[in-house]
Amino acid sequence: MKGIVAIYPGSFDPVTNGHLDLIQRGSKLFDQLIVAIARNPEKGTALFDLEERKEMLRAMTAEWRNVSVDTFEGLLVSYCVSKNANVVLRGIRAVSDYEFELQMALMNRKIDSRVETIFMLPAEKYSYLSSRIVREIAHLGGPLTGFVPDMVEQKLREKVKSNGIRG
Ligand code: PNS
Question: Does residue 1 carry a pLDDT above 80?
Fold first, then answer.
């Protein structure tokens, strides 16, 4: 696929090994992959602020030359157009993800038909992993090895120590 700029949008609160698996797969397929962290008022208060999430993602993706990290506000398709991107990359872990992803992809296409959504599957070992469950395990003092990079685990432990966190 030549000259294709793809956007991988999400909350990334925090980035997990499942996200990184998908970023690596996407970086092989697209010429440029922009990991775009959404300022998502619908999700309420995030655990990590946008700068913290960006810092973690930048550190974790530094090895991939065609991957960059950005933040965005407002409609995803408008952001795609502003970046000359015509692909949105999303991961589907299990059937349970499908309904929400279908709705989002079709709505995005309705708003702007130039933007196509491409779905990829992360490695099976990450199919049960989510940022929400990682936050909950961290809150309860459980093990995080293998779910998030060491740097992210350290930041999660620091958050638990300093404020206590919500799952
Ligand atoms: O990691 P998440 O929380 O599943 O990501 C959801 C995200 C950020 C991709 C989605 O909420 C989104 O695209 N937000 C931007 C606002 C928007 O365009 N909403 C209409 C989508 S149909």
Answer: no
